[in-house]
Design brief:
223 residues; 2 domains; binds fe (ii) ion; 0% strand; Four Helix Bundle (Hemerythrin (Met), subunit A); 10 helices
């Protein structure tokens, strides 16, 4: 039986999707006429920044590796990243309008625009991430070994500023299953210095409900 290949997109895409869904729920629950809406607007800004940076990393470290094998697909994915950038710019404009308009009624209207624009952003990005995992990933598997794919991932990880990496890791921890948490933490335990492992274990302790944490601890102790 063939061995399971490495899905380089799985964990980061799950984290990003988790963030999209949570932000969508926050937007639906927010009264944009109230000053408390600032927390939702801040989270929205963060998710937009994370997606922008994620697209940039893929453009730089992954897409060029596949261009020689399927230029048409890479053109399409790069075009997707451009469309995504425009959807992001629209949302940034709405955010700026919300911040600079003190009127409660205007802010409520801007809040509605934010909701619709974010729905478009979510829909587009869900399709886009599926395309990466259903088409791009198989081309990566065909032309590169898992070790080479992990090397691309390592380059991406090194280029992400530490505070961003930790914040994204928190969203990943909230958005993956027990088996994925265990595999992730065992990898960090094996490959990174002890304080780094402690940091990631701390994120698991903060984010996972106690019954899941018990399972994770048990699995880590048996190794
Ligand atoms: Fe992606």
């Amino acid at each position: 039986m063939s061995q399971q290949r490495y899905n380089v997109f799985n964990q980061i895409h799950k984290g990003l999707r988790g963030m999209l869904y949570d932000t969508a729920r926050c937007i639906q629950q927010t009264d944009f006429a109230q000053p408390e809406a600032e927390a939702t607007v801040n989270q929205l800004e963060q998710v937009l920044r994370f997606f922008d940076e994620h697209a940039e990393n893929e453009d730089q470290f992954i897409l060029p590796k596949i261009r020689q094998h399927n230029a048409q697909l890479i053109d399409e994915l790069e075009k997707d990243h451009d469309i995504d950038h425009r959807l992001t710019e629209t949302l940034f404009e709405h955010i700026k309008d919300w911040r600079t308009n003190p009127s409660a009624i205007t802010r409520e209207t801007i809040g509605q625009r934010i909701g619709y624009a974010f729905n478009e952003f979510i829909a587009f990005n869900l399709y886009h991430m599926n395309k990466e995992e259903n088409v791009l990933m198989y081309l990566l598997w065909k032309h590169y070994s898992d070790a080479e794919i992990r090397q691309m991932e390592a380059q991406i990880l090194q280029s992400i500023p530490l505070p961003t990496l930790l914040a994204e890791s928190r969203w990943m921890m909230r958005s993956i299953n027990d088996n994925e948490v265990i595999t992730w933490l065992l990898g960090v335990k094996k490959e990174a210095p002890a304080p780094v492992f402690e940091t990631f274990l701390g994120i698991a302790r903060d984010e996972l409900p106690s019954e899941r944490l018990v399972k994770v601890h048990a699995a880590l102790e048996t190794v």
